[in-house]
Amino acid sequence: MNPQTIVSTAALLSLAILSLAFLVTVYRIVVGPTLPDRVLALDMLAATAIGFIAVIAVKTGFTLYVDIAIALGLVGFLATVAFARFILSRGRPDDAASNARQTRKPNAKGRARR
Fold first, then answer.
1. CATH (residue range 3-103)
2. What pTM, to 2 d.p., does this model score?
């Protein structure tokens, strides 16, 4: 058994496992059930894509693919942070109503301050 066969077999096995992870992640994106679940699944999808690119880089020996994987990792991280900030800034409707009630305290005449 030569090293070329071992690398080729390992790459094929890795691609099969990554394909399974990709399908499970796409299922989680479609089914949800909540927005944070979908955001986390999108982050996992980016990680799976990085894995695909890395395996292809090893299999073909073309090292430029590693640079592409690094760039995708940076973009995926920034996208996850942006989605998380969006979810935090959106808030829940119940929280907004309770915050509005707490900030409007009546003054001495019984009217709400703005």
1. 1.10.287
2. 0.73
